[in-house]
Amino acid sequence: MCTNMVNAGNMNGSGNLMDFLDEPFPDVGTYEDFHTIDWLREKSRDTDRHRKITNKSKESIWEFIKSLLDAWSGWVVMLLIGLLAGTLAGVIDLAVDWMTDLKEGVCLSAFWYSHEQCCWTSNEATFEDRDKCPQWQKWSELLVNKSEGASAYILNYFLYILWALLFAFLAVSLVRVFAPYACGSGIPEIKTILSGFIIRGYLGKWTLLIKTVTLVLVVSSGLSLGKEGPLVHVACCCGNFFSSLFSKYSKNEGKRREVLSAAAAAGVSVAFGAPIGGVLFSLEEVSYYFPLKTLWRSFFAALVAAFTLRSINPFGNSRLVLFYVEYHTPWYMAELFPFILLGVFGGLWGTLFIRCNIAWCRRRKTTRLGKYPVLEVIAVTAITAIIAYPNPYTRRSTSELISELFNDCGLCDYINDPNMTRPVDDIPDRPAGIGVYMAMWQLALALVFKIIITIFTFGMKIPSGLFIPSMAVGAIAGRIVGIGVEQLAYHHHDWIIFRNWCRPGADCVTPGLYAMVGAAACLGGVTRMTVSLVVIMFELTGGLEYIVPLMAAAVTSKWVADAFGKEGIYEAHIHLNGYPFLDVKDEFTHRTLATDVMRPRRGEAPLSVLTQDSMTVEDVETLIKETDYNGFPVVVSKDSERLIGFAQRRELILAIKNARQRQDGVVSNSVIYFTEEPPEVPANSPHPLKLRRILNLSPFTVTDHTPMETVVDIFRKLGLRQCLVTRSGRLLGIITKKDVLRHMAQMANQDPESIMFN
């Protein structure tokens, strides 16, 4: 079916292409913005470069040392990425901690201390009231010398909203003015870039700086978003910066993407304190090409990043994350039923969120709403702050909320037995007190609020992660279910389901575990992660014992969500933005052929081609000016249409420009030759221009009767930009990556033009 699959690896034209590229041409071998890279060519160029270095290393000691430095450059880049990503994550965590507390009060002894740090240094604070100390004062105490009463509450309420609006306004203004690419999660774009798409500036230094600063501002504002997704973008910006310092990566887009895959792993490593989960996340969720070498380097980058964050110790608990917990009660088989129910809830929530959020984002793109991003952010922030403040569970930061819900004693207003002398770790199940019932109502209201407000928050023109809000929704639902099961077990311990494992006075049910399982279920329902999700969650808790409940919830949520649609939130946003992303997970089962998809179709203008020895410089320049194609097939003649090779548009432009500047006698009437040896020309004729060196002599070809299922597979696995369609060596047409995506959309009854980059 593929006439030159055997020769594809050799890339006959690549050696000649490298001769051309070795000349000091500016921008040769690079790609234009919003274009796809040629994976086969990048692989071939790296092989040629490596062969060249290996041969030179035998010539002298200095060349041998240079070859060693080249071999170690990858590990050096990983080390630098890990150090910078870990440092930035630590600084972000410390800044968020301080600025979140700044909305409620200030530390008089040192204004740069957060509430917790302020009371750590106080001699008056006790363990029971460790968040109360004279050094920390709420704004009402500082401004009107009142801590209680209606006036103090209203003043604190007003200042809470004011700080939130200030932080959000600063963030959206910085993004809008200095780095428009710093908005959003960044993971859909990272996935697209790793698949071979070029988005200039998306991983630039300005984006890195603005995203880091604005991430602190938006998380501190109290909006329903997290920093975990954007931290992947920040880490990839670090990877892009350091890879530009080494020619091995800066001059090869394929090699650069190996670095970015490892950087994504480092980003998740510092976001969750989960190095192994970070590597698996990069492999399962974002990477397109992930060779074994990249796996090792990802592991090293994630390790260094985690070690750096641990050294900074931003949470002061010697842990990598705020919500590290340890449970002391095993789970029982009967609890699998509520765990699976939480999985069903997670799948349904994921489906609801994706559909509503995509509908809202589409409305934002297609109506006047999208023209006022600052007003939208201010409005959503104001609504969030006004509704969040009265409820103590939504007033605090989402990470602190999750931490309390995960904690075994996060809601501890139970009716105690005065004769109980057990240690805290083995507190038996007890009847719930009035505080627990009040907390249940507040949590139920918080759940509804988080579900609704997150739909409108994710996708605004500010950095916005989805991991933490999704986990919060699941943790709230899980904690409510956990307390319900706990009280059921206490009051009905003689029921058959409780009789075997829940004796009166025993510590049977751990509500915090239900919160953790619910968080995993909801995050899985939204992102469709499975293996990496479970590993991240157990790295968060440090307990291998709870892998089975997490697996049950993650798999159930994925099954339920997949029943309503295969796309996760990131794939949905990729399609919404029209990025040319060919998902490996998508299945193509239609019985169409290459001839049904190739261009030109019947009634269309014939394919624009170059001939090997009959076109002048002016002809080629006119063809380039009148078309916007990325390249042109080269044929023997327009009559025979026997395929010779493929010439890239950018290489043609640069070669002709260079020839006009450097070679005497090259004029508009000069004939361009793609043959091995140009024929002798009369003395009075213009000097010919030989461009065989830029010709790819082994372009990928398929026959017109190749099934599209095979063509789609080839595009996926080889990362092709285009594929030529032939019959018996005669050129019939061309299939580009966008043609494949259009055809797949058409077969799925979607708008074929929806895949166009927007």
TrEMBL record:
<comment type="similarity">
    <text>Belongs to the chloride channel (TC 2.A.49) family.</text>
</comment>
<keyword id="KW-0812">Transmembrane</keyword>
<dbReference type="InterPro" id="IPR046342">
    <property type="entry name" value="CBS_dom_sf"/>
</dbReference>
<keyword id="KW-0067">ATP-binding</keyword>
<dbReference type="InterPro" id="IPR000644">
    <property type="entry name" value="CBS_dom"/>
</dbReference>
<dbReference type="InterPro" id="IPR001807">
    <property type="entry name" value="ClC"/>
</dbReference>
<dbReference type="GO" id="GO:0010008">
    <property type="term" value="C:endosome membrane"/>
</dbReference>
<feature type="transmembrane region" description="Helical">
    <location>
        <begin position="513"/>
        <end position="538"/>
    </location>
</feature>
<feature type="domain" description="CBS">
    <location>
        <begin position="695"/>
        <end position="753"/>
    </location>
</feature>
<dbReference type="InterPro" id="IPR014743">
    <property type="entry name" value="Cl-channel_core"/>
</dbReference>
<keyword id="KW-0406">Ion transport</keyword>
<dbReference type="InterPro" id="IPR002246">
    <property type="entry name" value="Cl_channel-4"/>
</dbReference>
<feature type="transmembrane region" description="Helical">
    <location>
        <begin position="157"/>
        <end position="179"/>
    </location>
</feature>
<dbReference type="Pfam" id="PF00654">
    <property type="entry name" value="Voltage_CLC"/>
</dbReference>
<keyword id="KW-1133">Transmembrane helix</keyword>
<feature type="transmembrane region" description="Helical">
    <location>
        <begin position="372"/>
        <end position="389"/>
    </location>
</feature>
<feature type="transmembrane region" description="Helical">
    <location>
        <begin position="336"/>
        <end position="360"/>
    </location>
</feature>
<feature type="domain" description="CBS">
    <location>
        <begin position="598"/>
        <end position="662"/>
    </location>
</feature>
<feature type="transmembrane region" description="Helical">
    <location>
        <begin position="439"/>
        <end position="459"/>
    </location>
</feature>
<keyword id="KW-0677">Repeat</keyword>
<keyword id="KW-0050">Antiport</keyword>
<dbReference type="GO" id="GO:0005524">
    <property type="term" value="F:ATP binding"/>
</dbReference>
<keyword id="KW-0813">Transport</keyword>
<dbReference type="GO" id="GO:0005247">
    <property type="term" value="F:voltage-gated chloride channel activity"/>
</dbReference>
<feature type="transmembrane region" description="Helical">
    <location>
        <begin position="259"/>
        <end position="283"/>
    </location>
</feature>
<keyword id="KW-0547">Nucleotide-binding</keyword>
<feature type="transmembrane region" description="Helical">
    <location>
        <begin position="199"/>
        <end position="219"/>
    </location>
</feature>
<dbReference type="GO" id="GO:0015297">
    <property type="term" value="F:antiporter activity"/>
</dbReference>
<dbReference type="Pfam" id="PF00571">
    <property type="entry name" value="CBS"/>
</dbReference>
<protein>
    <recommendedName>
        <fullName>Chloride channel protein</fullName>
    </recommendedName>
</protein>
<keyword id="KW-0967">Endosome</keyword>
<keyword id="KW-0472">Membrane</keyword>
<feature type="transmembrane region" description="Helical">
    <location>
        <begin position="72"/>
        <end position="96"/>
    </location>
</feature>
<keyword id="KW-0129">CBS domain</keyword>
<keyword id="KW-0868">Chloride</keyword>
<feature type="transmembrane region" description="Helical">
    <location>
        <begin position="466"/>
        <end position="485"/>
    </location>
</feature>
<feature type="transmembrane region" description="Helical">
    <location>
        <begin position="231"/>
        <end position="247"/>
    </location>
</feature>
